[in-house]
């Protein structure tokens, strides 16, 4: 019955919804890029410094780096390996260009949403923080129903659909490499996930902070080694990507089919799935960090978008395009990337990617859960409800492992678009607050001092924080 409902949703909603989402996604990204004075370029050095400026924190709140690593745990995963391969197989090499553009523009949206999440976060009794779009929609816009709609969309997207995608990709990779049975893999993932998610957000942050840098470094070392071996071919591959990006011979279909190529559609879809810029996901973890200025964490999460797409996705794409076979229906998803590594590294590449994907995808499951749990607590902060939600998360981890990749990916695309639409519209409404935070941060940074937000200096923010304290008492 669950599968029938997902089929209906995909068949009747996905196409028209994505037509609108693409326009709004790129429009909002351009809006913040221009109105913030190209913050993703102008303050990029500050984002590097903010990420490494960590300190001990009280209670269960996360350090800036732990929040960055948890956000990166969800970003760096199947989207960088399986998503890039799917985009290239179905949209051609030009899809990579549109992934780049989505990330570059989306970095400004990522800054906006994570800065707002820090401003409107709330403090728990144990000293930890939680927040995200549901919180800044409620406090900044004053719309509880819109906040609840976003929270529900995020729960379905990250708690259920994206985790199903992660487990599905793990199954495909381990089947190709080791012939593992999907039912046993699914049960193993359920067990491992349960051990982590019942330990709370602090355990998630510690787990991500340890595993994400290691797994990303190993994968990138392999990727860079392959690129160095074939360094003379890299310029031609990049040229191929750019030329193919503007090949409109294969149209995407739908309402805007006359304007969008398959490369553009697949690049934007898979780019958003991978880096999540503007989607409303990363702010949920950005809010858990203990920082002195909201814009500090906005800059850190902006860096995550860059690392995810411009670095990791690009390495994967070039590895695939340097191989002997990267087009057509025969090889898609993780199988295409495994074939490329096998071409470059022999049988070791096949087994290596299966192992690394286990780490990538499993850390993404944990990061996804962290996002969804915050929104469950927004709707109903009750231990019984939270534990019921955890059980449903485990169900969808298994569901993704034993069902076809086509239906799992299509379900993820559909609910992802719903969530992104709500968040992007909310960001536009709250844009004056984003500009105020950026101006305050930049003023202090130019003076050579560590930026600290003093709400007393900003009457509008002071009123919002007073309203928030009243809301927290309800």
How does the major sheet shape up?
A: 2 strands, antiparallel
Class by SSE composition: mainly alpha
Number of strands: 2
> Mean pLDDT, nearest integer?
83
Helix content: over 70%
The best one-word shape is globular
Model regions low in confidence, pLDDT < 50 over at least 5 residues: 250-259, 466-474
Reading side by side through the largest sheet, how are the strands ordered? 1-2
Oligomer: single chain
Please indicate the percent range of residues in DSSP E strands (runs of 2 or more): under 5%
* Whole-angstrom Rg: 21 Å
Reading the helices and strands in chain order gives HHHHHHEEHHHHHHHHHHHHHH
Query: Distance between termini?
Result: 38 Å
**What is the count of DSSP helices, taking H or I runs of 4+ residues?**
20
């Amino acid at each position: 019955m669950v599968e029938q409902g997902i089929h209906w949703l995909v068949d009747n909603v996905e196409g028209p919804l994505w037509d609108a989402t693409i326009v709004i996604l790129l429009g909002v990204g351009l809006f913040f890029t221009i109105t913030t004075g190209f913050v993703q370029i102008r303050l990029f050095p500050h984002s590097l410094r903010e990420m490494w400026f960590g300190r001990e924190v009280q209670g269960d709140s996360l350090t800036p780096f732990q929040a960055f690593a948890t956000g990166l745990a969800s970003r760096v995963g199947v989207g960088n390996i399986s998503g890039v391969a799917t985009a290239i197989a179905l949209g051609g090499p030009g899809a990579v260009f549109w992934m780049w553009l989505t990330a570059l523009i989306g970095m400004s949206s990522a800054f906006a949403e994570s800065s707002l999440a820090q401003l409107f976060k709330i403090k728990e009794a144990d000293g930890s923080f939680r927040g995200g779009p549901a919180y800044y929609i409620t406090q900044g816009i004053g719309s509880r129903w819109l906040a609840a709609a976003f929270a529900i969309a995020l729960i379905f997207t990250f708690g259920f659909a994206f985790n199903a995608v992660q487990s599905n990709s793990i199954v495909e990779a381990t089947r190709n490499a080791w012939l593992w049975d999907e039912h046993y893999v699914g049960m193993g993932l359920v067990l491992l996930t349960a051990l982590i998610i019942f330990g709370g957000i602090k355990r998630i942050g510690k787990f991500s902070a340890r595993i994400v840098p290691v797994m990303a470094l190993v994968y990138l070392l392999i990727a860079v080694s392959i690129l160095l071996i074939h360094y003379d071919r890299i310029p031609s591959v990049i040229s191929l990507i750019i030329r193919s990006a503007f090949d409109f011979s294969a149209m995407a279909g739908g309402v805007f089919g006359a304007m969008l190529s398959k490369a553009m559609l697949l690049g934007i879809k898979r780019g958003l799935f991978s880096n999540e810029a503007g989607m409303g996901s990363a702010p949920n973890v950005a809010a858990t960090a203990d920082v002195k200025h909201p814009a500090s964490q906005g800059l850190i999460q902006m860096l995550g978008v860059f690392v995810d797409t411009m670095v990791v996705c690009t390495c994967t794409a070039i590895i695939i395009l340097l191989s002997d076979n990267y087009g057509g229906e025969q090889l898609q998803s993780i199988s295409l990337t495994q074939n490329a590594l096998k071409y470059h590294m022999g049988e070791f590449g096949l087994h290596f990617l299966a192992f690394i994907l286990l780490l990538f995808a499993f850390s993404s499951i944990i990061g996804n859960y962290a996002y969804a749990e915050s929104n469950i607590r927004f709707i109903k902060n009750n231990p019984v409800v939270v534990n019921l939600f955890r059980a449903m998360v485990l169900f969808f981890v298994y569901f993704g492992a034993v069902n076809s990749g086509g239906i799992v990916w299509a379900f993820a695309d559909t609910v992802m678009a719903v969530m992104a639409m709500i968040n992007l519209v909310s960001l536009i409404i709250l844009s004056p607050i984003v500009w105020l935070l950026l101006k305050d941060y930049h003023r202090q940074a130019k003076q050579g001092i560590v930026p600290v937000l003093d709400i007393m200096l900003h009457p509008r923010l002071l009123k919002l924080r007073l309203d928030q304290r009243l809301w927290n008492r309800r």
